[in-house]
Every structure is written in structure tokens, then in C-alpha cells.
Amino acid sequence: MSIAANTVNSDGSFLWKRPHFISNPLLRYGLLVFSVVYLMYAFGTLEINFSRVMRGIPRAMQIFSGAIPPDFTSRGSLIVTGFIESIQITILSTTVGVLLSIPFGFMAARNITILPVYWVGRAIIIVARSLHPVVLGVLFVKAVGFGAFAGILTLIIYTLGFVGKLIAEAVEEIKYGQIEAIRATGAGYFTILIYAVFPQIMPRLIGLSMYQLDINLRASTVIGLVGAGGIGNTLNSAFGRYDYGTASAILLIMIGIILIAETVSGKLRRFTR
Amino acid sequence: MSSLTSGPLKDLGKETYHWQRYTFKQRMGRYSAFVVVALLLYWTLSTVDVFWPWVWSAPEEINDMLYRMMPPNPRAIPEIIPVLIETINIATIGTLFAVIISLPIAYFGARNVSPNKITLAIARVIIVASRSINTLIWALLFVAILGPGPMAGVVAIAFRSIGFMGKLIGESIEEMDWGPVEALQASGSGQGHIVTYAITPQVMPTFWAVAILRWDINIRESTVLGMVGAGGIGMLFQVAIDLFRWNTVSMVLVSIILVVLFGEVVTGMVRRKLI
Hints:
The complex is a heterodimer. By secondary structure, chain A is mainly alpha-helical. Helices cover 75% and strands 1% of the residues of chain A. Chain A has a two-stranded antiparallel sheet. Chain B is mainly alpha-helical. Chain B has a two-stranded antiparallel ribbon with strand order 1-2. In chain B, a hairpin with a 2-residue loop joins strand 1 (8-12) and strand 2. The chains are: A mainly alpha, B mainly alpha.
């Protein structure tokens, strides 16, 4: 944010210019050139096939005309079971996932563990965080078969990655007064964890669990696309049958349920705080 | 231990004082919350459609799969690198489109600057619909419309990100300081000048933070787009799974982890530089 970019006229008047976002001109134009070159290259790799897009437009019309009006009734019971299964997957995976992420989160907190344990904990959390739930879903469907169980396992790992990381961060930010106080009574390592560390992260943990319920509900709607149970399964087969009326009904209910879940989760978080 | 917390602490005349952490009402509230959670879990466990024998054999099956995956097949790397680059390209271009489109949507979706109720409602509906439908479902739709390939992936990423960025940037517009706007109005400037000189500078930090965050998320998301035919590394993953080439699968998984870590490192660097 330098004023040097502004010009002072010969009569001493001063013309104000907005400071540049990046003050170093070399870096500024360098980044600009780099982005332009990169974008040209990247757009070149997109293989936009206009004749295919043209042919796609009537197809899109066909999809939308099939999708309007949404058909809630003809597959109504399938939609209801699908959503109930999604909610069950959400509840189970959030519960187990949050419980599991406590030990892993503690393992990945630098200030309360020894280095080898820290690396193991960090590695597990990094792997769990990096893999998209759909990738995990495919793997678990291959390993344990189609259905809700694969979905539950998938979201447990997903929860582990997200909540585990945030628990580790919360543990790294704790105050040491409590630890010293408990240690002064002669408590051992695990007693310190339970009475000095855990109470400090408890409020954060409850808030996170509520948030994770919301996230898992969203994720549970897609992992069904690869066969891991829930409403995604129903949606996938509706798409597969070209039954766009049912598909749009599912999407509309999904939007509604996710909005409700978001509000409820927000309310619960505010309430527990 | 128990004598310290529940024993008599001070003598208040005849009655002894017992320390309790919660009042009776709070305690009842906590108990009922526990009961609700327990009932919910009971209902879920008793009705969920799970074939239990598969659950008990799961550790064995997962072990078996991991065993087949070891070691990752390095000969798959020449196949992986081009699709990995494509994955990053999809995420970047998709985020770029989303950035461009989400700015007006954020403006119209912010309660304090939106011109009227109708524009506000339209922007809100776009934000909600975009946010609630997952990238993969958008991709499913656009593969049907645009045909398989990275283009469908780019559009799917953009459609999902518009709502996310529109919502967060709109919220930061709603929370901004109104002083600069009034100052510009007092100097007689038009709406365009107000946007560039009063709103934009205040929203800029949030804008960059949100754009970077979304790029990071989009790299993760674009790793799976290929599974529905929308380009990127997902296609290779699906093919390897279908052909039971487990060593290639594990190599793909390793490369996905690496590219996600790459995204995280880059966003971390840019974030430190910018914010």
C-alpha cells in the first residue's frame, strides 16, 4: 500500500489513485501473465465440443420437461425409505465417528503426545481428510457389499478426518493451568487427559458434533450414487430409469431437508454454547 | 476426591452447603438430552437395513482389500499424471467461473444492498439450490446435457460453488460498515462508485479467503467427478476398481492424497501472503 504509485503534479497538486492490490509491479504483472497463460492452456484442454453441446440442449429440454412437475407420488414409498436410510446412516456414522475421532484427535495433538504417536495420528487424519467420501464409498462397497453399512463406514472415516483434525487443534490450544493443577494432585497421564484436557474441549466437541450431523446428512445423499445406501441410491436409479420426475422430487426434498437440518444444527450449536 | 466435591464446604449456620455443578433444572435438561440421543440411537440400530453377518466379516474383508492394494503400482504413474493435472484444471476453472458469477449473486443476495425484494428472493433461491445439491449430482446432470468430459465437471463445480461463495460473500456485505457508503452518497456518487469504492474494499479480504477456501474444496470434489464421467482422476479410479487392478487403485489413492495436500499447501501459502 504505497503512496509512491501516486503522481504529484508540478504545481504540487496530488492525484489520488487506489493503491494496487499487489504493490510489487514485477510480481503483479508476472502473476497476471502467468494466470493468462495458464488459463489459455487450461481452457485448451477442456475439449469443448460445440456440436455435442448443441445436441445436448434438446436433451436438457427433455430432462427438464420430464422433471417438471416433480413426481412425489408414484415412487413415494421408495423416496421415504431412501431418506429414512440416509438419516439413519447420518446418525450412526456421526455417533461412532465422533467417538472414534476423540482418541485419534488426541493422538494428533502435538502438545500431549510423543512424536511417533503424533505422526501416526496426523497421518491417519490426513488420509481420512484427503479422500472424498465417494472414493471411500466405492472402496467400502467393494469391501463389505452394497447398502447402508458401506455408507456408515464411509462417513465414519469422513467424520474422523474432519472432527479429528479440529479436536487436535482444540487440544493444541488448551490452557495449561488445569493440567498443572491435576498433576499437582499426583494424577497420571490418562487422569490428566480425562480431568484436565477433555473438559476444555468438550464444548467445542459438542458443537462440532452438531455441525458434523449436518455435513454427514449432505454427504449421505451422494454416497448412495456409488451404492452405499441412502437416498443417493434412489436418486441414481431414478436417473438410470430416465424417471426425471422422481429425480426432481428427490432433489427438492433434499434441498428442504438440508435447509431444515442446517437450521436445527445451527440452533443446537447456539443452544449448547 | 468425592469428599472434596460433595462434602460440606462451609458451615452456613445449621444447614451444610453442598456444591453442585448444575442446578436441578439443568441436570434434568441434560438427562433428557441423553435420553433423546439414546432413543434415537436405539431406533436407528433396530431399524437400519444392515445385513449383520457382513458387519462381522467386515474387518477381514477390509484387511483383504488392503493386502491386495499393497504395494501401489508405480507403472500407473504415466497414466495418472495427465488426469491429475486435468483434475486441478477442472477445479481451477470451475472456481474461476464461480467467482465471476457469485459476485453479482452475493450483491443481490445481501439484504442491505439488494435493489428490491424480488432480486433478493431470486438470489436467495439460486444460493439455496446451488448449495443444497452436491457437486456429484450437478455433474450427473451436466454429463447428461453436455456429454462426458471435463467441461461437464467444470460446470458442475461452478454450479455448486456459486451458492457457497454467494452466501459467504453476501454475509460479509451484510456485515460491512455503512459509513463509507454514506460518505460516498454524500459526495454525490452513483451506485457504481459506491460498489467500487465503498463495498468492494470492505469485502475484498472475505472474497479472497472464500475463493481460496473454495478452490481447496473443489480440488477434493473434482477428484470424484470422473466417476460419473465428468473428467479428472475419478474415471481412472473407477476403471481400476472395475478391473480389480488393486495396485493401480492404491496408486491412484496415493496420488489423490498428494494432490489434495498440494492444494492445502498452496492455499496455506496464498492465505498467509494475502490475509
